[in-house]
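From the shared-data thread, chain only:
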Amino acid sequence: MIRVVTFDAAGTLIRLIKPPGETYAESAHTFGYQLDPERLQIAFRAAWKRLAPPHETPGPSPDDDRAWWKELVRRTMQEAGYRIEPFDAYFDDVYATFARPGIWELFPGIPAILTELARLGIRLGVISNFDRRLYSILGHLRILQRFENIIISSEVGASKPAVRIFLDAARRFQVQPAAMLHVGDDADLDEKGALAAGCKAFLVDHNSDRMQAIFRLLR
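Structure, as tokens:
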């Protein structure tokens, strides 16, 4: 029987209101640069695809994976053919911006789903390849308190699909992995990772009513 439902964050619970390229360009504007948002977005996608995820470590990331994000921004600029000085100050602004109100929004229907799961007595959590900015983001969106445990890769030292992050979640909830259902949007990171850890898994499709199928799995 499923006693705990955990959610991935970005792509499952929340989404960016505008593409990262636009945010990068807006931050650059405050430093006196006029950059093409679309060009930055194409570069961001290329940099994201090529940059390896943070390495698994024995414990929490000392810098909250900040160095990884800084390298992502640096590579995005290189891909786009731009150079911003002072880069460190620019990165600090970009990094902080992605934790501010008005940058993220909830996918439609998420509050209702969380409310119904809680009504059914299901304990709720988050398992995300994010960093500590996620607490502020979920707080701004008024769902932080809905979750009993929030498991973040930078705090655990392991990123999905590593089995360790799912087992850490089960340990915090004090349940067997088989009693956990993980909901996410990525077949490799969420579905395969959860199943490898012995959890159940469910892939979302925000373009259909598939999210409602979660409740059928709980019967």
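The chain is about 45% helix and 15% strand.
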